[in-house]
Amino acid sequence: MKILLVDDSRAIAMVTTARLESFGHEVRHAINGQTAIEMFQSDSFDLILMDIEMPGMNGFETTTRIRALEGHEPWAWTPIIFVTATDSDTNLVTAIEAGGDDFISKSSPESVLQAKMKAMTRIAALRSRLAQANGKLQDQANHDGLTGLYNRRAMDLRIDTLWETAVHAGRPFSLLMIDVDNFKKYNDHYSHQAGDECLKAVADCLEGVARQVNEDKMAPGVFAARYGGEEFAIVIPDAAPGVHVGIAMTVVEAVAGLNLPHEWNEQWGKVTVSVGAVCMAPASGWVKETFRIADDLLYQAKAAGRNRFEA
Ligand code: GH3
Ligand code: MG
Ligand code: MG
Ligand code: MG
Ligand code: MG
C-alpha cells in the first residue's frame, strides 16, 4: 500500500515509516495538516494514517478538509486511520465524525495496526474494483456497441453543453448528418452481418476524419457519433464558418475512397454516403433547428443523386 503518514513528530514518523516499510509498504510523511492536504491533492494514496494532536490544523480538521476534496464518488474515498496517543472514546467519536474510518492507539501492539491495515486494504481493493466497473458502465452507456463511436445519448448530452458554450461565447456551431446510401439494398444483397461490418468500416472512417481534423487544428473538439441505424453525425463545436463544408467534402471522399463494393448502390457501385452540413450562429436558433436543417440538406443530397453533400 501507498501510505500517507501524517504526524507532527519527526521521531515517531521515522520509527513508524521504518516499520511500515519493513512490511513492504510505501510511505510518504507529512509533517502537518496543510502539507498532508497538499500531498493528498497531488498524489493518490491507498491509506492515510492520521495523528490527532498537531500544531495548527489538527487531525480532525485535516480529515474534514480531505473528505471535502474527495467529492462524493465512492471510489474517490481514501481510508483514514487515526493514530493517537490518547486512547479516549471521545476522540474516537470525533474521529469518525470527521470522516475517519478507524482509530488506533499509538501504544497498541503491532499486530493490531497490521490487522486494521489489512481491513482497510480489503476496502481499498473493493473501491478500485468499483471504480473499474463504473468506468466500464460509463463506457457502455456512452458508446455504440457495434461501432464504438459515441451513441446518440452521449452525443445529445455533449451537444447540450457545447451549445450552451457556443451561445455564451457567440461562436458558431456546426453539424454534419451523414447517411449511408442505399444501405437497405446492401443488407438485402450482402447479408445483415456484412451490413454490420460495413457500418463499422464507415464508422472507423468517420472517426479517422474527426481525428485528423482535430490533429490539424482545423476545428478543436470535433467528434463523430452514431446517430442511429446507418446514420452518423459529426459535431463541430467551434470552427470558423465554412470549415464544415471542407469536412463534409472530406467525409464524402473518404467513405467513397474506402472502395467497399456495393453493386446495388445505383451508379456508384461502392459504398457511399450523403451528407447534410450546417453551420449555425447559436443565438439564431435552437439545437433542434440545427438538426432539422441538416436533415433537409441531407435529403437534398440524396435527391441530387447521393455520394455528395449539401451545405
Ligand atoms: P437512402 O440512400 O435513401 O438512405 O436509402 P437506405 O436504403 O440507406 O435507407 P433506408 O432508411 O431505407 O434503410 C436503412 C437501412 O439500414 C435499413 C436497416 O435495416 C439498415 N440498418 C439500420 N441499422 C443497421 C445495423 O445496425 N446493421 C445493419 N446491418 N443494418 C442496419
Ligand atoms: Mg502529534
Ligand atoms: Mg437513413
Ligand atoms: Mg431512412
Ligand atoms: Mg441510408
UniProtKB/TrEMBL annotation:
GO cellular component: plasma membrane
Top EC group: transferase
Database matches in InterPro entries: CheY-like_superfamily, Diguanylate_Cyclase, GGDEF_dom, Nucleotide_cyclase, Rev_trsase/Diguanyl_cyclase, Sig_transdc_resp-reg_receiver
Domain of life of the organism encoding this protein: Bacteria
GGDEF domain ranges (all copies): 171-311
SMART domains, alphabetized: GGDEF, REC
The keyword Membrane is annotated on this UniProt entry: no
Keyword terms, alphabetized: Phosphoprotein
Post-translational modification 4-aspartylphosphate, affected residues: 51
Molecular-function annotations in GO: diguanylate cyclase activity
Protein name: diguanylate cyclase
Organism: Azonexus fungiphilus
